[in-house]
Amino acid sequence: MRDLVKVVLPDSELPKAWYNILADLPTPPPPPLHPGTKQPVGPADLEPLFPREIILQEVSTERWIEIPEPVREVYRLWRPTPLIRARRLEASLRTPARIYYKYEGTSPAGSHKPNTAVAQAFYNQQAGVRRLTTETGAGQWGSALAMACQMFGLECTVYMVRVSYQQKPYRRVLMETWGAEVVPSPSDRTRAGRAIREQNPDSPGSLGIAISEAVEDAATHDDTKYSLGSVLNHVLLHQTVIGLEAKRQMELFDDYPDVVIGCIGGGSNFAGLSFPFLQDKLRGRDLRVVAVEPTACPTLTRGRYLYDFGDTARMTPLVKMYTLGHTFVPPRIHAGGLRYHGDAPTVCLLYDQGYIEAVAYPQNAVFEAAVTFARTEGIPPAPESAHAVRRAIDEALACRESGESKAILFNLSGHGHFDLAAYEEYLAGRLQDFDYPEADIQRALEGLEELQPA
Predict the structure, then answer these.
(1) For the domain with range 45-66+112-233, which CATH number is right: 3.30.565.10, 3.40.309.10, 3.40.50.1100, 3.40.190.80?
(2) pLDDT score of 87
(3) What residues pair up with 225 in beta bridges, in sequence order?
(4) What average pLDDT does the chain have?
(5) Residue 263 to residues 135, 168, 304, 310, 408, Cα–Cα distance (Å)
(6) Per-residue pLDDT tens for 80-98?
(7) Containing H/E element for 17?
């Protein structure tokens, strides 16, 4: 093991089932509520948006859910993904820590997002759906769904947060190359978008606004369903192929992580890596799990654990999560995939019960870590993944101070090849840090008390 740098599993070890953490939680997550009645939503409430199989997965408490063979066939284009020991980074930091990263940037879309996009496209095709709508922040999710829809013969409409649409034109081109229609959000196409533009014609947009537009589009067309890239249980479920592979790969390194780290926006890549390891923690294993977010969108670290809408126009069910308020519009940071006002309810429950930790970082500290990683390991991380890199480096530096040799595992959930404008700003000294003002958070949280059940 002394010289081993990476472990790549053979195709025969591609997981055959996804892991469902709901089977092992000490208490179930609070149920989604109908905003009118404050009663738990049923399958019928979700049918306008999702096919039956997705709804069944959303509410399932079965520990293992079989991956359909057509989905595994597409997965084999890039899965299993490598687990890499960051030996050059370790040497640069002069740390006794052992740093590992699961590299999801080998997918065609360059991130972890196709793990669920392929599954969702398959289930919608099987249900006879013609078109999928969705939202995207940085464009990684939109790119993944555009690719998946092309593979399963579906049309795809992507509402892209306007600031990201402007910052990341090549993400749009990638989506269009795969046949998707990309619409800057807020748009004039939906009532939700028009209402926002009337209030603020120069709105930079937000994931909450883009979700409203995509949901409205799907709900008003009989041949169309909505596809979500994070937050909901079925999405987190599909992403667990990451952690399942990583557990096997750590065995081949003859190691086990002391700390598991992932960036968090809605929760998909964080959950994908951490949930299979959290299964061990829930059974008594000593393990730290850390979620990393931006100070500009500090959902876990400064939000409140309340029922809230998942979108700005209040079209979704109420879900209990750490939230900054559904009217929250984040600053124009480059980590577009981390600019969501809430987090996955399952992740929020685990945080509330103390099973995971959370920390927030400003942009410049994140990009400093990204450049260090790129100059040692050769891969420029996506701005989202760079948050996990920052925490991994800080954990390794703490080991240098203490002399401990801990195993640190993080999810490098995507490459930064389409994010070089952000790197250019950092290298030129123009990148600004944002620490979201407390007064703005409290303003965005106003009125949420009336949404809470009695």
Answers:
(1) 3.40.50.1100
(2) 97
(3) 132
(4) 93
(5) 19, 20, 19, 19, 14
(6) 999 999 999 999 999 999 9
(7) strand 17-19
